Amino acid sequence: MRPERLPILYSFRRCPYAMRARMALTHAGIQCVVREILLKEKPAEMLEISPKGTVPVLLLPDGEVLDESLDIMRWANAQHHDRLDNESAERLIDRNDSYFKFHLDRYKYPQRFQPQTDAAFHREQAKLFLAELEQSLAGQSNLCAEQASMADIAIFPFIRQFASVEPERFVSRPYPHLQAWLKHWLDSDLFSSVMTRHALWHPGDTEQLLF
Fold first, then answer.
1. CATH of the domain spanning 3-83+193-209, picked from 3.30.420.480, 3.40.30.10, 3.30.565.10, 3.10.110.10
2. Long-range contacts: 34-37, Cβ < 8 Å, 24+?
3. Distances from the Cα of 153 to the Cα of 33, 69, 135, 142, 205, angstroms
4. How far apart are CA 190 and CA 180, in angstroms?
5. Which pLDDT tens digits describe the chain residue by residue (211 residues)?
6. Coil, strand or helix at 32
7. pTM for the model
8. Is 89 in contact with 149 (CB distance < 8 Å)?
9. Looking at the domain 89-191, which fold is it?
10. What is the C-alpha separation between 87 and 70, in angstroms, rounded?
């Protein structure tokens, strides 16, 4: 399919929200044009279709715009025969995106908050969610079942982010199942594929494909 007939994805490689959108699209086999941007230099073309200015943004060929990562994931999932549905996935994703993300941000970037927040306190609060995941993984390979679900792809980038703040501390904690789950996703072909480096996009550039 020619690039002009493909969905267009505005993305930022290291953003966990963009990461999970790319993973869902790739898992579903949905090829799209990927436009890598800098968040400090958002292109006018992206802001025109999504004024809120966050990534990911997916422009579908019919003109519909999806500018929330979970909406992109749900759309991709609906197109694929090997769907990642699970009745408990949405509840777990919601807890990740609200409770865990709140504490993760304050643990990883305490200097961004005024007055500067107590990183150690928020690390301990975030660990309550990690303990929940560890318990879930004690009896199965993935978060909601033996098979992967939307929850695994949606939550993985944020656990990766948490683990990267203090790697030695993370590996020393009593989370053997969570650590093994994280390593599985880090080593997966899916994750490797979506972390391919794309050149920054500028209007008039030759379009690049997601995979």
1. 3.40.30.10
2. 34/9, 34/198, 34/208, 34/209, 34/210, 35/8, 35/9, 35/10, 35/11, 35/201, 35/207, 35/208, 36/11, 36/12, 36/198, 36/199, 36/200, 36/201, 36/208, 37/10, 37/11, 37/12, 37/200, 37/201
3. 21, 11, 18, 10, 30
4. 17
5. 667 799 999 999 999 999 999 999 999 999 999 999 999 999 999 999 999 999 999 999 999 999 999 999 999 998 876 666 667 899 999 999 999 999 999 999 999 998 889 999 999 999 999 999 999 999 999 999 999 999 999 999 999 999 999 999 999 999 999 999 999 999 999 999 999 999 999 999 999 999 9
6. coil
7. 0.95
8. yes
9. Glutathione S-transferase Yfyf (Class Pi); Chain A, domain 2 (1.20.1050)
10. 15
Q: Is 62 helix (H, G, I), strand (E, B) or coil?
A: coil
Q: Which residue type occupies 168? A: E
Q: What does the domain layout of the chain look like in residue ranges?
A: 3-83+193-209, 89-191
